[in-house]
Amino acid sequence: MDTSSLFAKIRSWISTTLSFILVATLLFVVTLTSIFSGAKVLLTNTHSPDQHYTINFYKTDAGAMGSFGIVGELQGALWFRKAVYWESKVDQVELQWYNNHTVIVNGHPIDLASSETWGFQSE
Questions:
Q1: DSSP string, 36-62
Q2: Which of 16, 46, 53, 111 is deepest in the core (most CB within 10 A)?
Q3: 3-state SS, one letter per residue, for the chain
Q4: Is 89 in a helix, a strand, or coil?
Q5: Phi, psi (deg, nearest 5) at residue 93
């Protein structure tokens, strides 16, 4: 015979139902963001002359949801990345290192030592 109180049974059903709703919502959001986030294809990666900085350049395409362009991500410690370059409606990248911490991307200089970025709107 079950000796738990009515309050304990209700609390158990409520927590089970809420857990199911939260898991279903999480799966739904993850599925939608993976579908509509657009494609990101690695174009090239480059290392600074002293091998201190590594930048990966990706071609992005949002399909019917948006535009295409180039994104440059500076590799950090572990798995951390910082977007340092973004340009829309471009599908090629031309790189040249000016010195150990300054890279020129499609004619736009970026000083990585001073945490400069290019192509992002300031808010």
A1: HS-EEEEEEEEE-TTS--EEEEEEEE-
A2: 53
A3: CCCCCHHHHHHHHHHHHHHHHHHHHHHHHHHHHHHHCCEEEEEEEEECCCCCCEEEEEEEECHHHCCEEEEEEEECCCCCEEEEEEEECCCCCCEEECCCCEEEECCEEEECCCCCCECCCCC
A4: coil
A5: -130, 135
Tokens 């857990």: give the residue. Answer: 19
* Structure tokens belonging to residue 22: 């939260």
Q: Position 60: which residue type? A: T
Tokens (6 digits) for 110:
């970026």
Residue 91 near residue 70 (C-beta atoms within 8 A)? yes
| 0.85 surpassed by pTM | no
Q: Given the structure tokens 């930048």, which residue do they identify? A: 55
